Fold this sequence. Notes:
By secondary structure, the protein is mainly alpha-helical. The protein contains seven helices and no strands. The longest helix is centred in the first third of the chain and has 16 residues, at 2-17. 33% of the residues are buried.
Amino acid sequence: MKITQLLLAMGCLLALSACPAEETAQESTSTEQSSTEQTPPSGVAEHTESTDGAHSEAAALPAGNAEAGPQVFIARGCTACHAIQSLPEAKGTIGPALDGIGERAATRVEGLDAMAYLKQSIEEPEAYLVEGYTNMMVKGLNAQMSPQEYADLLAYLMSLKS
């Protein structure tokens, strides 16, 4: 079982390492947009700007489309590590299953509502680890997405109820 998890982790890391090259073209296109639309906000209020380029809480995300979220989840390689019963492609076991995360997220960290927890989990995955799992996720994964993709992914995760 440990070998399988290690192989899945390696596959996940390889898949994620390919993502920045795809984003370079999207980022150059997005430079024509306003700075509010270029990058998603940091999920932790005390961070105004991080060294990896994530911008302040003041930068607002566009409205998310939960129906577009599964495509982002698949395209960003999240399915390699996370399972979601309603999404056949999501069979990962390295990270926690995400069924019901839209409700459960609000109970994970005292002082964070569900949306703040999800943002923190994506932007700073080491901040809180679900018992039984190690941090295998790339920090600042949101920086590899357009603001619309990030908003769609968050809306999708929020829609996952028990």
